[in-house]
Design a protein that fits this description.
The complex is a heterotrimer. Chain A is mainly alpha-helical. Chain A has 26 helices and four strands. The chains are: A mainly alpha, B mainly alpha, C mainly alpha.
């Protein structure tokens, strides 16, 4: 039974890696840091798989269980209200630890080859360990404040890793942007936590959900009190969602994700594709019973925000030329899918909870194929020394393995059967069909767009130009033999490709459901035809335009010139933000605040100091050094005391 | 002697004391400061003698105190003069205003 | 107002007047001489109080010793004809103020207290041949000074001798001219 304390080793091993490599990596392990970090991750991943096996084996026979193997009481405010550090195991958290540890292990192995020869090799693996620890802590947290702590830690690790090449100003700016935008969203998250926990008088997830779920008289205030016409419960849930939206780069808080591609490619694979950006989805899923039964208004918000993100990201991805940015927008689009799947809850029957299962399933499969795509991109970038699609082309003979893996990834993300993405995307669209037809059509259109831009990328990299043979200097190792990538970089590609192929066959509807019983699917006949058809149409158009280098793309772009330009500039959202911050916030809030700080606050302090100095200079004159002055003062004091004691104090 | 109450003698000696104190605080020369100190000591002597004569005429304690004070004053004056001479040799001046090394 | 009262008041005037001029005079030699007059006046006051021995000691030691010592040191250290520098203005004013305030305070305390002489001697003139106790003449003073019984002062007497010896040696040491190193 996985209720022993060894489960805490799963997050603690990467933390130990962080401490060890962070403190001693540069001096004592300059070349072996990678092996140490990877070794720790192997153990952690093994433990995670073992726990998952035991948990789900018991789950299938015994029904739902939520196990809390470890609880450490940290700050106790009152008997029922305390901040603990504890671990919870339920279907989604077990699934997440498997995903996080596995992808992190793949990235560790890949980085052994990719980051070889870097000056700060040890520091890189230390930061990877910190991130893995934070993400694992986040998914295992039982307590909403503990989640917040790890949430912030994840943000911090992301900042450190995006800004890893800190001598590049663009990387520094990107790291700042990511941190500031997510921090701003986290403010909403914190306020939401405070509202919910204050009314429920507890911070613990299970107690929180049970108390908010029952119409207890003590908690009636949260549903009846309203602020600006919306009940407090909805405010709390909406603010928590805002926090999740920031971390998951949903529209309009998505501006940091494309810029975050300044970090090393394995980092992008781990953080900004597979794990950190799904933290928002995970958070909503964690609190799903409350959202589902009481926050229906907020769920509508989630539905539309998710759908808008999915669509807008897909449109923006069609115009980008940087390979990593295309993949970033693709991530944003897929997360939009997951979010609107969560928003499709409707009461009445089990079918209403299909969205929950579908979102988690898509999260699982997306981790595999998105990480695969990013790591392949890393190999390509490593070869070509550039991120731009225009510098690539005809690489399929030079990078045979990468070619196959990238193709598998694109097929998976487009939703072509029998690859993983097909199953999860079909579940999402089914849930949308039952809930809201408009969102279904948006999802359908977006999957066509997804296929289009992913295959645009594929064809531009591997076809488009005359095939490049293994020539003199590119792709060769020191021995002179043409090589695609070292073994440590190829192994994760193969493993992830296998995952992308087979992950769709995991029976999620039996394992991860909201009501803890296996979900009977209400399928619509031939439902699968439409998404696959849309994907094939997109694939075909991409092939037509990009398979052979021609001017067809330019003519196509010219025909929708205005829309193209609008999408190319990412809908000018960055400019809007820049305007708001520079013109409004800096001038109207920043400058007055700085003035007050300099003149009023500092002025007060300086004034006090100067007053003290002047008074002291005035009193200083008493110490003249002359004996007769001292004698005079002495006599005056004595006479004063004599008067007091003789006449006044009798 | 009985026509003059004790209080009058004490007033005289107090006045002498405060005149000496004024001189001590005001004079800039070390020798003149010493002279003021002698005045103060003498006022104390007058007090002792007057108390002895008026309040305890059958005892001699006041007289002895006076004698001892005189002896000590003499010794002290001698030592003070020695110091003044030493100071004069080193600094060629005995202006007490110049000795303000201990100021702020 | 008997003659002795008049004598007393004249003596007080002499004492205080001379003292006042001594502390304010600008010429140092004159200041020393006024001090001399003041001390002599005090001796006269002792005579008036019928403490002859003390008066004699006063004249011999104070007037004849200390004032002479002061005059010698004036000659040794400076031009005695030169004027003394004026006192510091602020300090002179505050010192005068302090002195007057102190004097008034003391006077008020004295008048409030009202010293009463010992009861069984009220009104009696202590003097030659009138008392039944010891009289302040030389024989009695000497005997009591060296007696070891109660009210004897032999211990302070010895200590004073040691003190005088120490003072003498100290003066010599302090005022000694150190030999110049002429190597």
């Amino acid at each position: 039974m996985p209720n022993s304390a060894y489960i805490v080793l799963i997050p603690l091993l990467p933390l130990a890696g962080f401490v060890l490599l962070g403190l001693f990596g540069r001096r004592y392990f300059p070349r072996s840091s990678g092996v140490i970090g990877t070794g720790l991750m192997v153990v952690s991943t093994g433990l995670a798989f073992w726990v998952a096996y035991q948990y789900f084996a018991a789950y299938l026979t015994g029904g739902n269980q939520e196990i809390v193997p470890v609880r450490l009481s940290w700050l106790t405010f009152s008997p029922g209200f305390s901040i603990d550090m504890s671990v919870i195991l339920d279907p989604i958290s077990v699934m997440m630890i498997v995903v996080v540890t596995f992808i992190s292990l793949m990235v560790h192995i890949y980085s052994l080859g990719y980051m070889k020869g870097e000056a700060r090799y040890g520091t890189y693996f230390a930061f990877l360990g910190l991130f893995t620890f934070s993400m694992l802590g986040l998914v295992l947290a039982e307590n909403i404040l503990e989640t917040y702590i790890f949430w912030e830690l994840v943000g911090c690790s992301s900042f450190l890793l995006i800004g890893y090449y800190f001598d590049r100003p663009s990387a520094v700016r990107a790291a700042n942007k990511a941190f500031i935008v997510t921090r701003f969203a986290d403010l909403g998250f914190l306020i939401g936590i405070l509202i919910l926990s204050f009314h429920a008088q507890t911070l613990d997830f299970r107690t929180l959900m049970s108390r908010l779920a029952e119409p207890d008289s003590r908690l009636a205030s949260i549903t009846t009190t309203s602020f600006l016409g919306i009940s407090l419960l909805s405010w709390g849930l909406a603010l928590v969602f805002v926090g999740g939206a920031g971390k998951s780069a949903l529209f309009p808080l998505h501006i940091w994700l494309p810029d975050a591609m300044e970090g090393p490619t394995p980092v992008s694979a781990l953080i900004h594709a597979a794990t950190m950006v799904v933290a928002g989805v995970y958070l909503v899923a964690r609190l799903y019973p409350v959202y589902a039964y009481f926050g229906s208004g907020v769920l509508q918000l989630i539905l539309y925000v998710g759908a808008a993100s999915a669509l807008l990201a897909a449109i923006m991805a069609c115009t980008q030329t940087d390979i990593k940015r295309v993949l970033a927008y693709s991530t944003m689009s897929q997360i939009g899918y997951m979010m609107f799947a969560l928003g499709t809850f409707h009461p009445g029957g089990e079918a209403g909870t299909l969205g929950y299962t579908a979102a988690m399933f898509h999260l699982f499969t997306h981790a595999f194929f998105k990480a695969l795509l990013f790591l392949c991109a890393g190999v390509i970038i490593h070869l070509v020394h550039s991120n731009e699609m225009t510098d690539m082309g005809g690489l399929r003979k030079l990078l045979p393995l990468t070619h196959v893996c990238f193709l598998i990834g694109c097929l998976a993300i487009a939703g072509i059967p029998p690859f993983a993405g097909f199953f999860s995307k079909e579940d999402i669209l089914l849930a949308a069909w039952h809930a809201n037809k408009l969102v279904y059509f948006i999802g359908l259109f977006t999957s066509g767009l997804t296929a289009f831009y992913m295959f645009r990328l594929y064809f531009s990299i591997f076809w488009s130009r005359p095939v490049r043979e293994a020539s003199g200097h590119h792709g060769e190792d020191r021995g002179g033999h043409p090589r695609e990538a070292p073994f440590t970089m190829k192994l994760p590609l193969v493993i992830l490709a296998l995952g992308a192929v087979f992950a769709g066959f995991v029976p999620f509807s039996r394992l991860v459901t909201l009501s803890a019983t296996p979900l009977a699917e209400e399928g619509v006949r031939f439902f699968w035809v439409f998404p696959v058809a849309a994907a094939l149409i997109g694939l075909g158009i991409a092939g037509y335009l990009y398979r052979v280098a021609s001017d067809r793309p330019e003519r196509a772009a010219a025909s929708v010139r205005g829309l193209y330009r609008f999408a190319y500039h990412k809908f000018y959202i960055d400019e809007v933000y820049s305007f708001i911050t520079k013109r409004i916030i800096f001038n109207w809030i920043g400058r007055p605040a700085a003035w007050i700080d300099r003149n009023v606050v500092d002025g007060l302090m300086n004034g006090l100091a100067m007053g003290t100095a002047r008074m002291s200079a005035a009193i200083k004159g008493f110490q003249s050094g002359k004996v007769q002055d001292y004698a005079l003062y002495f006599f005056i004091g004595m006479a004063g005391l004599a008067v007091i004691f003789i006449y006044i104090y009798t | 002697m009985s026509q003059v109450p004790l209080t009058h003698i004490l007033i005289v000696s107090s006045a002498l004391f405060f005149i000496g104190m004024y001189g001590l605080f005001t004079r800039r020369n070390l020798i003149t400061m010493l002279m003021s100190v002698e005045l103060i000591l003498n006022s104390a002597n007058i007090n002792f003698v007057a108390f002895n004569r008026y309040l305890y005429p059958d005892r001699l304690d006041g007289v002895f105190f006076t004698l001892f004070i005189v002896a000590i004053a003499a010794a002290e004056a001698a030592v003070a003069i020695a110091i003044i001479i030493n100071l004069y040799r080193n600094f060629k001046s005995i202006d007490v205003e110049a000795a303000d090394e201990m100021k702020f | 107002m008997s003659v002795s009262a008049v004598v007393f008041y004249i003596l007080s005037v002499v004492i205080l007047g001379a003292a006042l001029v001594a502390v304010t005079s600008r010429k140092i030699f004159r200041s020393a001489i006024w001090l001399l007059f003041s001390l002599t006046g005090i001796a006269g006051l002792y005579f008036w109080l019928q403490m002859e021995f003390v008066a004699a000691v006063q004249i011999v030691v104070y007037v004849g010793g200390i004032v002479v010592l002061i005059i010698f040191s004036i000659f040794l250290t400076q031009q005695s004809g030169k004027d003394l520098p004026a006192p510091v203005r602020g300090r002179a004013f505050f010192s005068a103020l302090a002195a007057c305030a102190g004097f008034l305070l003391t006077c008020s305390m004295l008048t409030r207290y009202g010293f009463r002489p010992a009861e069984n001697r009220e009104g009696e003139v202590a003097g030659v041949g009138g008392n039944s106790g010891p009289v302040a003449d030389v024989g009695n003073i000497g005997a009591q000074l060296l007696s070891t019984t109660e009210h004897g002062y032999v211990l302070p007497f010895e200590v004073i001798s040691v003190l005088l010896l120490a003072a003498m040696i100290g003066c010599i040491v302090i005022a000694m001219k150190t030999k110049p190193d002429n190597k």
